Amino acid sequence: MPGPLIFVSRSRVKTGKREQYAAHLRDATEIIDSEEPRMIGFNTYLSDDGSDTSTVQIHPDEESLDTHLKIFFEGLAERVFQTLDSYEIDIYGTPSQAALQSVTGLPGVTVRVLPVHLGGFLRPQPL
After folding, report:
1. Is residue 120 part of a domain?
2. pLDDT tens, position by position, 49-71
3. Distance between CA atoms of 104 and 25, rounded to whole angstroms?
4. Count of alpha carbons within 13 angstroms of residue 14, beta-carbon side
5. Which of 17, 27, 79, 95 could form an SS bridge with 99, CB 3.0 to 4.6 Å?
6. In the chain, how many domains are there?
7. Helices of type H across 1-127
């Protein structure tokens, strides 16, 4: 049985842009929450010194990731790239060719895909 599609991006926060990035992330999270009801999880983490950030997305399937990337590139990417230098994307599961093409075209970003889900589970947890 295929597992979820997990997308992890890693970026460096541009010097002096931490607060601007944090404000954009709050706005982006609201948009993603309201416009992407199928996304299972969307969480962003910041290093202690505020220089690196990672976002972890959990999608039920490739269609959900495609929807996210469409929303990202059409409305969110410009503000993100004003504040971040992305350098790595890991995709766990098999993305669509369209999704793969959209992220492999990002300058300076290494993309790694691990398509084979060997096992595991997701368990909903109360927050």
Report:
1. no
2. 999 999 999 999 999 999 999 99
3. 23
4. 11
5. 95
6. 1
7. 18-35, 62-71, 77-83, 97-104
